[in-house]
Write a structure and sequence with these properties.
Two copies of one chain form a homodimer. Chain A is of the alpha+beta class. In chain A, 44% of the residues lie in helices and 22% in strands. In chain A, helix 2 runs parallel beside helix 7 and helix 5 runs antiparallel to helix 7. The longest helix of chain A has 28 residues. Chain A is globular and about 55 Å long. The interface between A and B is medium-sized, with 23 and 23 residues.
Chain lengths: 279, 279
């Protein structure tokens, strides 16, 4: 039975993004569709168990969804990982996080892709958007030049920086800061208390085009690029990728998932993610 | 004749910092004195030629001074480098830059030290203050933990960040961003147009204690620390340090010095610095 498990009715829940605003949902769907169109059949169907594709906390206050597609043998893509998390807050508000990350195999040294939107109120958004480098930029200025200078990513960062609602965001996790590139967009966006419409406008008119441009660069230059590396370097990249992935799971999910979903659900989800990450 | 050339009357010019405000001068003198007291006789006397210790542009609009002391054989310190540059601006104002950097030898992997103050008007200051890491932090989370998390450097960064006059500063050189740590202080500080006294207060009451705390950590944990590395890693560190130093000279001085001091003076100074950097 080779029917992809993702084509069950459960699957549609991921792409539904049922708890976020229309512009927020549209952005996520557009990004994932771009990746899937560009990479086509080189992406294998999602094979996560249904209870990892969609899960909730015992009391139902928190829900989440994961979507993973691995690259086939011919692909430079290791896997793409989409996620959303929704959680009712004790204050009466809600927290919504959506993310898309894409990891390449150690046969290439090109950067990964990452976008994460953290919405803690209708007027408050944290955005992380970057092509995280896969080599030490201090030792490899040529890599910095190819992927960050010649692509003019700094211009994209400045497009958002100049909006009056945008302030730089500093992640409390120093490791997360360390994995990002010098042109990473780390922004805290605050609209006035009664201006949630302005936030939707910022997502639609400012964040969306920048995110799509970054993804386009990633697809052309990285996922469909032609940078292959020799065996020695491949081993080094695999080692760096492994530390990066383990630390990311530990920092990003290891602390928040047990809190949001309880021990049992969190253990199931993290266990499945570790399989994907070390695949 | 082993009399250190720095003990000539010319030398005093470096420590005079003749063009900056008293709190700015006091900060630089205090930092350099701390380093010299802590490292004592393990620092060799400055042996720069007099015309590199102090130099000016052909028309006299720009002046500069360099001060270099190398570590002796027993020391983990490669060298410390102090500098100041003063330049009259066409607008009638003046530009003053002072810096202190300290580089360790590849026998240890501990971070370097860097402070730079760029003053383009009495009410405008750019501050760069950091312990630049000497290893890829993504691959070495334990290094991040030892030098940046356990030292609580983030608290120091936040002390300055919370001042209303302070905004994050993004260097136009992506390489400079890449060499800094996740807790680097990169700040653009702007006082109101008629409040240069407030800027002096910020230097004296806020920047100075933070800079001294960072230097104290560097002296205890890095310059006088006990992290020695094996031969293989020593070679890797030497390679990374070399790229770092060459890129830093190229970006930081290679473009500005010819503009400020003319081709001949710039060539003399850069030539001498390259000797120091590759020593």
């Amino acid at each position: 039975n080779f029917l992809p498990r993702c084509s069950s009715p459960l699957t549609s829940r991921f792409m539904d993004f049922p708890f976020v605003s229309p512009p927020h949902k549209q952005l996520m769907v557009d990004l994932i569709s771009s990746v899937e169109t560009s990479l086509g059949s080189s992406l294998l169907p999602c094979s996560l168990p249904p209870d990892v594709q969609h899960f909730e906390s015992p009391n139902g206050d928190a829900q989440g969804s994961l979507y993973v597609r691995s690259g086939d043998e011919s692909s430079l893509v290791d896997f793409i990982l989409g996620s959303w998390v929704h959680c009712k807050l004790p204050s009466g508000g809600e927290l919504n996080i959506t993310s898309l990350s894409a990891y390449l195999k150690p046969h290439t040294d090109a950067p990964n892709f990452l976008i994460e939107l953290i919405r803690s109120s209708p007027t408050s958004l944290i955005l992380i958007l970057d092509l995280p480098p896969r080599k030490d930029l201090v030792l490899h200025p040529d890599y910095l030049k190819t992927f960050y200078e010649e692509t003019e990513l700094e211009k994209q960062r400045q497009l958002l920086e100049k909006l009056p609602e945008v302030q730089p965001y500093f992640s409390t996790a120093l490791y997360i800061r360390a994995v990002l590139s010098p042109t990473a967009i780390m922004a805290r966006i605050e609209a006035k208390a009664d201006e949630s419409a302005r936030m939707e406008e910022i997502i639609h008119e400012h964040i969306s085009p920048v995110a799509k441009d970054l993804l386009k660069i990633w697809l052309e230059l990285c996922a469909n690029g032609n940078r292959k590396v020799e065996k020695d370097e491949c081993l080094q990249l695999a080692q760096r990728d492994k530390v990066f992935k383990n630390m990311t799971i530990e920092i990003d999910l290891g602390s928040s998932f047990p809190r949001l979903f309880g021990h049992d659900v969190a253990t199931r989800i993290l266990g499945e993610l570790k399989i994907v990450y070390n695949a």
